[in-house]
Amino acid sequence: MESFFERQERLSWWRQEVLQSARIMVVGAGALGNETLKNLALLGARRMLVVDQDDISPSNLSRTVLFQPADIGRRKAQVAAERTQALCRDTGGTVRALDADLVWDVGLGVFRRMDVILGCVDNDEARLAINRAARAVGVPWINAGMHELTGSVTSFSGEAGACFECAVTPDQVADAQSRYDSCEQVRRRYMVEDRLPTIQVTSALTSALQVQEALKVLHGEPVNFGVRYVYNGHTHGFHAIQLPYDPHCLAHGRLGPVMELPVGVDTSLRQTLDVLEERFGRGVTVHLGRRYIRRIACRQCGRPLLVQRPAHRLYDDELVCADCPSPAVFAISEALPPVATADSYIEIITCFTGDTFGGAPMTAEDEQRTLRQLGLPPLHILMVEDQQGRRWSCELTGDVATVLGDWGAETPAASCG
Fold first, then answer.
1. With the CA atoms of 47, 49, 55 and 61 taken in that order, what torsion angle do they form, in degrees rounded to the nearest 10?
2. What is the longest distance spanned by two Cα atoms in the chain?
3. The pTM is what?
């Protein structure tokens, strides 16, 4: 029987087994993501992870090949994974869905296990998050964007050269920050969605260029990293823009060798610290990278309110005091900083006044909270420091089967060395 892939296998450099074994993350399951998943499935990719956090809306149906009218209201990631799985020409693989906020709910260990990451998102906060995560673990990623009849594609190395953040503009920074309240840096509940004008043809063209770049990356073919390729559908012009390299860019931080821990996000903080003490000795410090809010207090009447939630899961409309006759808002009055120590002491920061009360005891209740309750995503990588100031990158490897199934347990693509 003739192979499904007979025509592409005629390319002199093509190796179908490379695509079959590749681990590919597609972030965003809208118009671009649908096209990209469809292309990968028809090419013979077998292991794909679809990341999205939105519902399917009526406007998606005219721009997506994987969604049907009966899917309205269902979650994009799940439906896209199901339909991509059915479309796969190579039946030996698995397409998995991750219904999650890319910025806060996708662990670095997920990125570490990919061979390439394809960004099909429509906002700069997500692009900046992908860029930092991919660079931290040394995995290449390819950004795609579109507006009206114009599409652009840029490949970024996971190791060197210009990255997305090197060329970020003040407007893009403002766009990334617009999701948060400017005072307390909690989320905005209601935002007017900025829907960019575009058509199906633009997403098809842009996705084709993005997937072609991914194929070159996976096969080790020459790729011009850090060059933005722009197609203008009005003029049929095609031009390349070399992005600047900023040697001081904050996104260029790279993790050291990753140590895998037999714990996951449903392990308590106390249990995690005990495991780390066994590895690194007494007095280790864990950099959680999240703020956990214990209490807030009204700026006007002083009424306290117990929150006990990560800051990124607190919304601006929850800071309005119902007891005050005139509009008044709460301020964060007591928070655990993004650092936990194994000697059962932690700082409590009064964020509103800027005062710091060092050495306040961590409560037994704090110690028994799980890492998930403290705001960490599954398969995340923690920064751990011992009393001599030595640091390690420690992965919550206990989550790998839950997030990635059978193919997640393989040796990660990036060594993070």
1. -40
2. 78
3. 0.89
